[in-house]
Amino acid sequence: MTPSPASGKRQHVVDTAYALFRQGGFHATGIDRIIAEADIAKMTMYRHFPSKDELIVEVLDYRAGRFDRQLDRLEQEGITAEQKISKIFDWHERWFRGDDFHGCLFAHALAEFGDPGHPVFKAVARQKNRLRSRMQAILEDVMPPDCAEGAAAALLMLIEGATLMAQMGQPAIGNARKAAAAIIGAASVPH
Amino acid sequence: MTPSPASGKRQHVVDTAYALFRQGGFHATGIDRIIAEADIAKMTMYRHFPSKDELIVEVLDYRAGRFDRQLDRLEQEGITAEQKISKIFDWHERWFRGDDFHGCLFAHALAEFGDPGHPVFKAVARQKNRLRSRMQAILEDVMPPDCAEGAAAALLMLIEGATLMAQMGQPAIGNARKAAAAIIGAASVPH
DNA sequence: CTAAAAAGAGACAGACCTGTCTCATCACCA
DNA sequence: TGGTGATGAGACAGGTCTGTCTCTTTTTAG
Fold first, then answer.
1. What is the rounded distance in angstroms from the CA atom of residue B176 to the CA atom of residue B95?
2. Least buried of A2, A153, A187, B178, by fewest C-beta within 10 Å?
3. Where do the domains of chain A lie, and which CATH numbers do they carry?
4. Strand C: which bases are under 7 Å from protein Cβ?
5. Which residues, in sequence order, are CB contacts of B48 under 8 Å at separation 6+?
6. Nearest to B158 among A103, A150, A158 (CB)
C-alpha cells in the first residue's frame, strides 16, 4: 500500500532523482545525495519506494509517460506522416541544444543495468519498443505495414545514434534528418 | 616510469578488466573483483595503473586499437566502398550474435562518465570519431567529400542504434543495412 | 651467484553505500 | 481536543569502495 497517494512528496522525490540521475548516472548517485537535494528524510523516501532500484524504475516510467503524452498529442494533429516524423526530430534537436542535455537516460540505464531480467532493463525495453511501434503506426499511413516496421526500426536507430553523438558534442541531427528522408523515400508507396 | 614494459601482467589485467567491465559495467565492477579474477595482488595492479579511471581508459584504448587494426586490414582489401561498408555491418552482426554480447563498451562508458572533461569521456569520443572518419574516407571513393561526411555520420548513427537495439534483444541489423543502402544510394555519384 | 626489480599477501584507513530502526514532531480531520 | 498518519532527524549496522602501506617471496638480469 502506498503511504500517501495524493502526497506531493512522492513526485518531488521522483523529480529530484530524475535530475540527479541524468547528471551523474545511477550507481554514482547515492541515496544520501537524493534525499539531501530533495530535502527530505531518508525514511520518507524509503516509505514511498522500497528500494533504489524501484525508484529508478519509477523515474524511467515517469519520463516515458511524459514522452508518450507528447506522442499522443502529435498523433491527433492533422498533418502528414512525414511532418509528424519531422516533428519528432524537432523535439530531439531542441533537446540536444538544451543546457542540461546529458544524453538519453534510458540508454544510460541500459548501460548500467545490462541484465535482461532486471526491472530497470525491462523499463528501458518498454520505452524503446513503445517509441518504435508508435513511429511504425505513423509510417503505416504512407507505406505497407511490413515496410513501416523496418523503416520505424531504422528511424529509431538513427535517433538513438544522433542522441549519442549529440552527447559527444557532435550535432548530427541534420544528417539524421537527411538519412530519414532517404529511408522514408525508399520505402514509401507513391500516391 | 612504467614498472615493466615487457611484462605480461599488465595486459592480463587489461584483459580481465575488459571482460568484467563488459559484463557488469564500470562503477559496479570493483577493484577487488578485478584483482580476484585476474589472480594478482592489489599492489601489482596499482603499480601498473595509478587509478581505476586510468585502467578504464587503458581498457578502452586497447579495445579501440584492436578495432582500428581491423579497419586497417579492411582498407587494404581491393573491394568496392559498398563492400567495405557491408563488411563493417557483417562484423557487427557477428558481434551481436555472440554469446557474451553486452552492448557497446564505449557507449556504456559514456553513460557512466558524462563529464566531457573526464579522460574516459575523451577516450570514447576519440574512438567514435575515428570510426566515423574512417567510414568517411571509404565513402569518399564513391561520393564527394561533403556528401561523404554526412553519410558517414548517418552510418555511424545507424550502427550505434543497431547496437543498442541488439542489446535489447531486438536484432535490427538487417533494417540498418537496408537503411544504409538507401543513404549511400541517395548520396552516391553515379559513375 | 647476486643484486635489483617485480609481484604476492594482507592489513588498514577513510569514505561511501543501501537499508533499518527509533523517537519526536507536524498537519489534518473528526 | 484528541487521534492518526505522514514526516523529520539522525544514529546505526553491515557491507563495499578506492587507494596506501609494509613485509615477504619470487623472478629476472648482469
1. 15
2. A2
3. 1-50 (1.10.10.60), 53-187 (1.10.357.10)
4. 5-11, 16-23
5. B2, B3, B4, B9, B10, B13
6. A158
